[in-house]
């Protein structure tokens, strides 16, 4: 963004790394959509916390007699899905509402839909997937009750994540369709290349050229009636 320094993720000044994105919801998102975008951001944070809790639960699972491979996979999922979730479905949603971008709306629907399916699978909890879902947590009560109780926590959180993702997708889709969005608009943005860095709504307005109102003469001409005003 021209004239704006990247501010996300917020990193300590002593690190040589710099933030990669500019994010300011009150500044860039239309006021009528700010609450929804903030909730999508909180949903991403909640899912990241869920992955962290799942890592701790997989550690308890391993200590109580489970497989260490699940702990390794849980660590991999935390490292992989934390940045990918932000870049692949939160950022498209952010850019979609910032610039009314049909392509980014479509990207959000497809990727967040895939994330929803993954969250459902994680909530179910198949053995060997590196997640503590319902199946493995309930089944582990016969081995170690304490570890099984800990394993139930990420199962609940994965379930809540899946439900919230479904609600968010439906709400965003309702707004998008209500505004006249379509797959054809997304194709147009793809063909023109504007999907790479769509301008904000303010930039679109400032770049507008032409007369927005019809031209009228400064002084209107009324027919002469030959009478004087009283």
From TrEMBL:
Amino acid composition bias (Polar residues), ranges on this chain: 203-212, 221-230
One of the record's GO cellular component terms: trans-Golgi network membrane
The keyword Transmembrane helix is assigned to this record: yes
Membrane-spanning parts: 41-63, 69-90, 102-125, 145-169
UniProt keyword annotation of Transmembrane helix present: yes
Main location: membrane
Keywords: Membrane, Phosphoprotein, Protein transport, Transmembrane, Transmembrane helix, Transport
Domain of life: Eukaryota
Membrane topology: Multi-pass membrane protein
GO BP, sorted A to Z: protein transport
Record region (Disordered): 203-230
Entry's localization field: Membrane
Function per UniProt: Probably involved in membrane protein trafficking.
Family statement drawn from the similarity comment of this UniProt entry: Belongs to the SCAMP family.
Protein name: Secretory carrier-associated membrane protein
Organism: Nannospalax galili
Gene field: Scamp4
């Amino acid at each position: 963004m021209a004239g704006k320094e990247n501010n996300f993720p917020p990193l300590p000044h002593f690190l040589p790394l710099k933030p990669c994105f500019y994010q300011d919801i009150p500044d860039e998102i239309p006021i009528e959509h700010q609450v929804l975008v903030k909730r999508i951001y909180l949903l991403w944070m909640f899912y990241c916390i869920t992955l962290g809790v799942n890592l701790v639960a997989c550690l308890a699972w391993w200590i109580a007699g489970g497989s260490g491979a699940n702990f390794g996979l849980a660590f991999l999922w935390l490292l992989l899905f934390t940045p990918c979730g932000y870049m692949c479905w939160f950022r498209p949603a952010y850019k979609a509402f910032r610039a009314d971008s049909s392509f980014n709306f479509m990207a959000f629907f497809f990727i967040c839909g895939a994330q929803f399916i993954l969250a459902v699978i994680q909530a179910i909890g198949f053995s060997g997937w590196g997640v503590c879902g319902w199946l493995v947590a309930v089944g582990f009560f016969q081995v170690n009750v304490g570890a099984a109780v800990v394993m139930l926590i990420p199962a609940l959180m994965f379930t809540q994540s899946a439900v919230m993702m479904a609600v968010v997708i439906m709400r965003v889709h309702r707004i998008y369709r209500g505004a006249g969005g379509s797959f054809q608009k997304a194709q147009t943005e793809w063909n023109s290349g504007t999907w790479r860095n769509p301008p904000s709504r303010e930039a679109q307005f400032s770049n507008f050229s032409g007369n927005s109102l019809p031209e009228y003469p400064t002084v209107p001409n009324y027919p002469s009636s030959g009478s004087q005003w009283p």
